C-alpha cells in the first residue's frame, strides 16, 4: 500500500485531537457511540457533512455502515455484499485511499449494482475514504463527505489516515466483542431450545403413557365389561331377543370406534386433514357453531405422515380446549397456505386460565408446543377474555 502522507504534511497539530479521540473511545462498548465520539472531535480539524464507518465481516461481506451527520440508506441497508459497495476497490485492497472532488460524477463510484443512492439523494460530493487496517488486513473503512464539491485534498487524506490508524484497534476489538456476544446468544438460545425440547418430550411421553393407560381403562371398564355382560346374558337366551343383542353390540362397536379414532386418526388417512378436523369438531365442539375453511387446496395432505399427525393432534387439543374448557359458542378453523402453511383455531370462549397463560408449562398447551417443536413448526397462542386463538405454522422449506 503506497505512502499517503504528502512530504509537506505536519502531523503535530493533530496530536491533541488524536489524544482526545483516544480518551473518548475508552470505555465505548458499541460501534455507534464509538463513531460518534470520533466524529465529534474530527469535526474540529476535518470538517464533514456526513461521516460513516463500515466494517468487513469475517465472511468477507460488508457490515451496515455506522453513520453520523446524516441518516442514509447505507446505515439502513443491513449487510451488503462488498461488490455492491461504492468503495469496493478500497475494501478489497486494490487502492490505498479514495479521494474525489465530486462523487456524483466520478465513475469509480458508479458501476452496475452499486449502492450509490445516498450519494445522489444527499449530494455527497467531496469525499475521502481511508482503510481501517489491523495486522496488514483491511477490516473496514472510514469515510467523510461534504455537500460542496472540491473541498478535500491530499492533506485531508493524510489526516483521515492518522485517525483511521488510531481507531482501527478499537474498532477491531469492538467487532470481536460483538462477534463473541452474538455467538454466546446463539449458543444460549440453542441450549434453551434443546432443554425446552427435552423437557417437553419428557412431558409428552408421560402424557402418551397416561393416554395409553386411559385407553386401556376404557377398553377394560367399558367395552370389555359390556361384552362380558352380554356373554353372560347370552348364556341365558330366554332373557334376550335378537334385537336387544344387536343393539348392545352396536353400542360396543360405537365405543370401540370412538376409542380407535382417539388413538389413531384413521379418518385423517382416509378422507384428508380438513374432513378429519370437521368430524372432530362435530364430536368435541358440543353445542358450539363450527366452521372449517381450507384455503390451502389440501396442502396439508401432502405433508409427511409424522408432520400431518402432529398438526392434527395440535388442532385436536385446541378444539378440545375450546369446546370443553372455554365454553365457546363458536369455533373456527382456518387452513391457509400464504405466506406460509398455517392452521388457526379461534374461539369466542372465556380464554385460558391465568395460571396457564402465566406459566405455559403444564397440560395441553405444553404438549402442543412440544409437538410443534418436534416437527419444526411455530406455535402461537393468544388468549383473552373474549376468546383464544391458536396458530401453528410450518417453515417455508418444510411446505409441500
Automatic annotation (TrEMBL):
Query: Among the record's GO biological process terms, what is one?
Result: phosphorelay signal transduction system
Q: Which domain of life is it from?
A: Bacteria
Q: Is Nucleotide-binding there in the keyword field?
A: no
User: One Pfam family for this entry, by name?
Assistant: HATPase_c
Catalyzed reactions:
ATP + protein L-histidine = ADP + protein N-phospho-L-histidine
Question: Which intervals hold domain Histidine kinase?
Answer: 311-398
Which E.C. number(s) belong to this protein? 2.7.13.3
List the keywords (alphabetical): Kinase, Transferase, Two-component regulatory system
CDD domains for the chain: HATPase_UhpB-NarQ-NarX-like (cd16917)
**Gene Ontology terms for molecular function:** protein histidine kinase activity
Its EC top class is transferase
Q: Does the keyword Transferase apply?
A: yes
Sorted alphabetically, which InterPro entries does this protein's record hold?
GAF, GAF-like_dom_sf, HATPase_C_sf, HATPase_dom, His_kinase_dom, Sensor_HK_TwoCompSys
Q: What is this protein called?
A: histidine kinase
Species this protein is from: Paracoccus limosus
